[in-house]
Amino acid sequence: MTDLETYAPLSERVAALGEDDDLLIEASAFGEFSEITPFRDIIIDNTYRRSIGWAGPGEDRPYEISDRTVGVITYAEPEGLRRIGLWMLHLLFSGREWGGLELTHPTSRVRQLYVEIEQPVAVPYNLKTEGKPRFTAYEHWPQEVRRHAFAEPAMAGVERVEPQDRPLFAFGWSARQAAMEPKVSEADQLIIALTPAGLCAMASLFFDIGHKTMGHNEVDMEPPIVGCAATQPRSIEARFWMPGSLGFYADTLDEITLPPVPGD
Fold it and tell me: What share of the chain is helix, strand, coil (3-state, %, to 5)?
């Protein structure tokens, strides 16, 4: 059975990396991968809403054009995100196409986090393969983290991910009836779909968020058109708040309380 506690020694090595260091993370460092694994050190709230008005009201028009987006806010401490990053690499190295975390923190409204590995969007016509590629190692080196880490390099500071490899975040409903008549307030699953390159970029970001000199305590992933283009177009928004950020208003994860559930 997968246990994220076993990642602790490797997580320590990731956390100790300096700005000019790198670390080769090999598949041989991991054991068997479980389909579903319990994990407590994260809280995901499904109540995030954002409205964007972009025309009017004005003296010559009695209307305003606006967009409304929904999303999640994730509360976590750096060690928890590092372990999720390692879990994602473990999934990639396992050869599976998906894996899940059962979120056991009592405050979390999202109870299950799934990661789905998608095939790359475009494969050259002259590239021949037989079956799925086997991934055996990932080389990580720390990079600067800014608030909009997956946006264009001018805003993100570095180029972490190509547009086609940006993540898609989606709500899910574990109850069949709720899935037939979905309400955001009843979504108890979060699914992250990524290509292998996108998964590695996301894992790397989770490693770097808590870096002692290049980290950042808030990361926002907004869809294009209504945001800073850090996700796929159909994605909901995802915000990550760590201790010290404006949104992480407590000293520890266990002291976080969530706002009332809004109407859909």
Answer: 25, 25, 50
pTM attached to this predicted model: 0.91
Rg (CA), the chain: 19
**Residue holding tokens 């059962």?**
102
Residue 57 preceded by cis peptide, ω within 30: yes
pLDDT in tens, 65-113: 777 789 999 999 999 999 999 999 999 999 999 999 999 999 999 999 9
- Give residue-wise pLDDT tens across range 9-38: 999 999 999 999 999 999 999 999 999 999
How far CA 104 is from CA of 39, 40, 78, 83, 111, in Å, comes to: 6, 5, 18, 15, 7
Which residue(s) pair with 169 in the sheet?
192
Contacts 24+ apart (CB under 8 A), 251-254: 252/77, 253/41, 253/42, 253/43, 253/75, 253/76, 253/77, 253/80, 253/105
| Separation between Cα atoms, residue 238 and residue 48, nearest integer Å | 9
186: left (phi > 0), else alpha (psi -120 to 50), else beta? alpha
Q: Tell me how far apart the alpha carbons of residues 186 and 201 are, in angstroms, rounded to a whole number.
A: 30
Amino acid at 7: Y
> Coil, helix or strand for 232?
coil
Question: How buried is residue 28: exposed, middle or buried, by Cβ count under 10 Å (0-12/13-18/19+)?
Answer: exposed
